[in-house]
């Protein structure tokens, strides 16, 4: 069976993907510098699956360290999750974001080329569609003008990978454009563990519900949407993780560059998320309506027909599942991986 390197695999999406790959019979190696994660997530994945992971504490920007891993582990494909992801911070510290997020892919490609590793899957984002494309987003639409440096690093990394594949016919690239991942493994043993004040909606909701934060501010209720709050395509992280397994199966058989949206295609509003969370879990989420957050689009969601038709992937989990599993994780781990 093939050996897959997850760069940044100790994080939220990486840890769920590790579990899905191990369940599907793949071997998993993780390289992570734990800048936004903990080695505990890797131990938990081993407990969930009953299988071993080879773990390296390494900075993916360190090409020599990556070459050593490729040589020691005989890697068949890389999934590149490693990077910084806080949109607001990227506006404050653009140079750091460009440096860190672009150096990771450049070093990985250097190391892959030198050691003969030819398959890479990249964690891209719906934000590469920019502000102007009509919804639902389709892979055939052009990348748009991004609204913040984080999103530009995703767009630029896609371009870098496409150019690298053009120059090297042996290199295969899959760009996975995630929509809004939420939820957690149904065991409640792994989940999203943001450091400090959460930037994203669901961890904020769960921290209010568990009593760590007083009140959720819903950013704007005067948008041109049915209830006035923004609508997004929330996807259960376990469905997203299964999408990576399908992408690995595919990349082993196909050359070239392929792009896939990974979303449900169904938009839900912020108010619907809060109401569903309260109903499914029987808990209150104190909330108030506040001003709009700069840079938010009123609504976006995926057309995921291509992933269904080409990869044979589709989502299985409902919004109720997403809310239940997010709460199950938060309740069992009120301080995340910290004791
Ligand atoms: P995360 O922060 O939980 O995971 C990223 C992991 O990469 C962490 O374990 C972190 O320690 C590691 N890392 C960061 N820089 C590194 C470096 N230089 N060397 C080694 N390890 C490094 O984030 P996530 O939510 O799991 O996201 C994974 C990927 O998916 C990211 O690239 C993110 O931008 C992308 N993405 C996330 C979302 C989302 O909403 N969560 C949406 C679209 C795309
Ligand atoms: C969702 C909705 C907020 C917090 C971002 C990135 C995107 C991708 C996913 C990585 C919005 C509202 C939020 C709060 C709120 N990440 N909200 N109160 O902005 O759709 O996407 O994360 O690639 O690139 O841009 O996700 O979870 O921040 O917000 O009302 O305290 O919840 O306004 O409508 P977003 P989010």
Q: What can you tell me about this protein's structure?
A:
The chain has helices spanning 12-23, 39-49, 63-73, 87-92, 94-115, 149-167, 201-209, 237-251, 270-281, 305-311, 319-332, and strands at residues 3-7, 27-32, 54-57, 77-80, 119-125, 172-178, 180-182, 216-219, 231-232, 234-236, 256-262, 268-269, 287-290. With 339 residues, it is an alpha/beta fold. Helix 1 links the parallel strand 1 and strand 2. Helix 1 packs across helix 8 (237-251) and helix 9 (270-281) packs across helix 11. Nicotinamide-adenine-dinucleotide is lined by residues 8, 10-14, 32-37, 59-61, 81-83, 85, 100, 104, 123, 125, 178, 180-181.
Describe, in short, the structure shown.
The protein has helices spanning 12-23, 39-49, 63-73, 87-92, 94-115, 149-167, 201-209, 237-251, 270-281, 305-311, 319-332, and strands spanning 3-7, 27-32, 54-57, 77-80, 119-125, 172-178, 180-182, 216-219, 231-232, 234-236, 256-262, 268-269, 287-290. It is an alpha/beta fold and 339 residues long. Helix 9 (270-281) packs across helix 11.
């Amino acid at each position: 069976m093939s050996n897959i390197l997850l760069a940044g695999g100790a994080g939220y999406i990486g840890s769920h993907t590790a579990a899905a790959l191990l369940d599907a019979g793949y071997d998993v190696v993780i390289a992570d510098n734990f800048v936004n994660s903990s080695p505990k997530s890797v131990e938990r994945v081993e407990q969930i699956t009953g299988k071993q992971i080879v773990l390296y504490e390494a900075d993916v920007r360190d090409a020599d360290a990556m070459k050593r891993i490729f040589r020691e582990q005989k890697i068949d494909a890389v999934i590149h999750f490693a990077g910084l992801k806080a949109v607001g911070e990227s506006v404050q510290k653009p140079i750091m974001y460009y440096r860190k997020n672009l150096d990771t892919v450049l070093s990985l490609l250097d190391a892959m080329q030198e050691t003969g590793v030819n398959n890479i899957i990249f964690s891209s984002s719906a934000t590469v569609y920019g502000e102007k494309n009509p919804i639902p987003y389709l892979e055939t639409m052009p990348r748009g003008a991004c609204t913040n440096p984080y999103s530009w690093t995703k767009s630029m990394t896609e371009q870098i990978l496409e150019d690298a594949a053009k120059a090297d016919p042996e290199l295969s690239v899959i760009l996975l454009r995630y929509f809004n991942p939420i939820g957690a493994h149904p065991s409640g043993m792994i989940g999203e563990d943001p450091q400090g004040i959460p930037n994203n909606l669901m961890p904020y909701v769960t921290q209010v519900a568990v009593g760590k934060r007083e009140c959720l501010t819903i950013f704007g209720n005067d948008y041109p949407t049915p209830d006035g709050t923004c609508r997004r395509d929330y996807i259960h992280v376990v469905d997203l993780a299964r999408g990576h397994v399908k992408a690995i199966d595919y990349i082993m058989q196909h050359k070239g560059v392929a792009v896939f949206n990974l979303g449900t295609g169904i938009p839900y509003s912020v108010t619907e998320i809060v109401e569903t969370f309260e109903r499914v879990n029987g808990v209150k989420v104190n909330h108030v309506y506040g001003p709009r957050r700069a840079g938010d689009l009123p609504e976006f969601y995926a057309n995921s027909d291509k992933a269904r038709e080409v990869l044979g992937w589709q989502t299985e989990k409902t919004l109720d599942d997403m809310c239940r599993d997010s709460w199950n994780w938060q309740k069992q781990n009120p301080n995340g991986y910290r004791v």
